[in-house]
């Protein structure tokens, strides 16, 4: 199976609800769900917008952090590039960026 850790993370999400374009994610037993360097907490809220280019932007309203061990930064938004399969992560107060490729860097 490709991306077993991704499917394991999805299994820890107990409810995904869309209300007026705002998606709320609840986690199993209200515990944070962690996939590599991304942490989703119970009650996360986000909004997905499809851009004119066909890319997608996921604005994180609350509840998602990036990092590892004891150092975590607030994730502001994710941009998914349709043509390349790249994902840009915008995080922290200074809007730092990192770009990863879904196929090469994330499907493990």
Ends distance: 10 Å
Quaternary organization: single chain
Total beta strand runs = 8
As a percent range, the share of helical residues equals 10-25%
User: What is the 3D shape?
Assistant: globular
- Helix-strand makeup class: mainly beta
> What is the ordering of alpha helices and beta strands?
HEEEEEEEEH
> What is the percentage of strand-forming residues?
over 45%
Low-confidence stretches: none
* Nearest-integer average pLDDT: 84
Rg estimate, integer Å: 14 Å
Q: What is the count of structural domains?
A: 1
The biggest beta sheet is recorded as: 8 strands, antiparallel
In DSSP terms (H or I, runs of 4 or more residues), the helix count works out at: 2
Would you kindly provide a written description of the structure presented here, covering whatever features stand out?
- By secondary structure, the protein is mostly beta strands.
- The protein has one domain.
- Helix content is 12%, strand content 59%.
- A hairpin with a 2-residue loop joins strand 1 and strand 2.
- The mean pLDDT is 84.
Brief sketch in words of this structure:
The protein has 108 residues and is mostly beta strands.
Draw up the topology in text.
Blueprint: H1 4-11, E1 13-19, E2 22-27, E3 33-35, E4 38-50, E5 56-68, E6 71-80, E7 86-91, E8 96-101, H2 102-106
Antiparallel strand pairs: 1-2, 2-4, 3-4, 4-5, 5-6, 6-7, 7-8
């Amino acid at each position: 199976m490709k991306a077993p850790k991704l499917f394991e993370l999805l299994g820890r999400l107990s409810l995904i609800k869309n209300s007026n374009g705002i998606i709320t994610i609840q986690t199993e037993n209200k515990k944070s769900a962690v996939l590599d360097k991304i942490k989703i907490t119970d009650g996360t809220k986000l909004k997905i917008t499809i851009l004119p280019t066909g890319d997608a932007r996921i604005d994180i309203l609350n509840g998602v952090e990036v990092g590892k061990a004891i150092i975590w930064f607030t994730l502001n938004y994710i941009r998914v590039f349709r043509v390349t399969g790249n994902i840009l992560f915008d995080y922290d107060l200074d809007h730092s960026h990192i770009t990863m490729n879904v196929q090469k860097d994330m499907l493990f």
